[in-house]
Specification:
47% strand, 7-stranded antiparallel sheet, two-stranded antiparallel sheet, 144 residues, mainly beta
């Protein structure tokens, strides 16, 4: 049996604050990355190199894009955070799906909160849909 790498266009995003099917559909997801912050230590008498020691992990912001939703629990969550300063962190899952709509890999994102919410420009000369972008900060993710 031949192995084929998974495709990156078949995925879903499930928020702990919403059970609406429309809140699982996004155009793109980016920011699932982790790296170590490091500390450099110079050793006395050793001039050929320095020691680089891992200190802690750092996660980039999660960026989600989709066509603008008017009736969305996720958008209401963002509006509540920005207008009322009511931050209610939630867990979410980014799920990569196979051709049978079954999960291949799941990233469980812990304690996400809205850091930025933007809407694309309106232009009467352009024939395009309105895209909303959600930028979320979170503590960490783990693979399930």
């Amino acid at each position: 049996m031949a192995f084929y790498p998974p495709v990156g266009f078949h995925f879903a995003v499930r928020f702990g604050i919403s059970d609406q099917d429309n809140d699982t559909r996004f155009q793109s997801v980016s920011g699932l990355s982790v790296e170590y912050e490091t500390e450099t230590i110079n050793e006395g008498g050793e001039n050929r190199f320095v020691h680089e020691i891992p200190v802690r992990t750092s996660y980039s912001n999660l960026v989600l894009k989709r066509g603008m939703m008017v009736d969305s629990a996720v958008v209401n969550w963002c509006i509540d955070a920005f207008e009322n300063r009511s931050f209610q962190p939630t867990d979410l899952q980014v799920i990569l799906l196979n051709e049978n709509h079954e999960p291949l890999r799941t990233w469980s994102v812990v304690r996400a909160w809205p850091k930025r919410w933007s809407v694309s420009d309106f232009n009467a000369e352009d024939n395009s849909i309105v895209i909303e972008t959600l930028e979320l900060s979170y503590r960490y993710y783990k693979l399930l």
